[in-house]
Amino acid sequence: MPRARYDRIRPTFIESWPAAVAALSVPQRCVRLSDSEIGDLLAAHHWSLVNGQIRESAALRELQDRLDAAVKEFPGGAIVRTGVRSPKDSPAALRDGLRVVDARAALLRLAQSSRVVDDLRLQLHHGDAPRLFARRWVEWEPWTELRCFMRGRRLIGVSQYDCKGLGFQPALVERAGELHQAVRGFFEEFRSAVHLDDVVFDVAVVQGRAVLIELNPFSRASDACLFDWDHLERFDGSFRCVQPTAPRA
């Protein structure tokens, strides 16, 4: 990735968030990584995929101890990720989910993830210090996860996030007005806190309140969901979700 593009996306990484933005998300703990820990985590990738367990090393045992302390701060479980992305592509996560209750399970998901490996290498290439984040596990209905678009600090669109996987969700259509209102209320605080003028941000609505999940670049690198990057003029501030298919005559 060219340096200019990296510099554009780096402000969306969790480690770049101002405290006021982090306060709009779930509680989390940052775990810094040593050079040897990063090296051993990268080296463990193929072995962990083949063997289905974390590869042992002195550096990874040290990391496991520190990461375990962070995860144990959340008795209900945590998700452990880089500041860039989650390890949702790892076989362990695909089989058992992203929620973990100890560092060993977290490290396996990280080591197996091609997304995490790519993120670590990208950050190292550009002279950054990669970090891990243990974030409190919060349950929400998948259909309450929404992708939101801010341009010039204006909310220009809200879309169902998993349009293809979930498809039409009757509860989402029924409660669209309520969810849209929750996002608009959240946005008043978000736009004052966020350090970017243009950004794509994901939220989940939990017990009537929107909770920030992550930030994404305002660009084609981010899925526009039910909007279209080729037609920015159609980002009209609306709330979009998959509608029921009309029966054929």
- Tell me the count of domains: 2
Order of helices and strands: HHEHHEHHHEEEHHHEEE
In total, the number of strands is: 8
The gross shape turns out to be globular
Across the major sheet, the strand order is 7-6-4-5-8
- Radius of gyration (CA) equals 19 Å
Determine the mean pLDDT: 95
Query: Biggest sheet, open or closed, and with what strands and sense?
Result: 5 strands, mixed
Helical residue percent band: 25-40%
List the uncertain runs. none
Number of helices: 10
Structural class: alpha+beta
Distance between the termini: 51 Å
Please report which band the strand proportion falls in: under 5%, 5-15%, 15-25%, 25-35%, 35-45% or over 45%: 15-25%
Please outline what is shown here:
The protein has 249 residues and is an alpha+beta fold. The chain is built from 10 helices and 8 strands. The strands form 2 sheets. A 5-stranded mixed β-sheet has the order 7-6-4-5-8. Strands 1-3-2 form a 3-stranded antiparallel β-sheet.
Give short descriptive properties of this protein:
2 domains; 8 strands; five-stranded mixed sheet; globular; three-stranded antiparallel sheet; D-amino Acid Aminotransferase, Chain A, domain 1
Chart the SSEs and their pairings.
Blueprint: H1 3-9, H2 19-22, E1 28-32, H3 35-51, H4 58-71, E2 78-82, H5 91-96, H6 103-112, H7 114-125, E3 131-136, E4 145-151, E5 154-160, H8 163-166, H9 170-174, H10 176-193, E6 199-206, E7 209-216, E8 239-240
Parallel strand pairs: 5-8
Antiparallel strand pairs: 1-3, 2-3, 4-5, 4-6, 6-7
Helix pairs in contact: 3-4, 3-6, 3-7
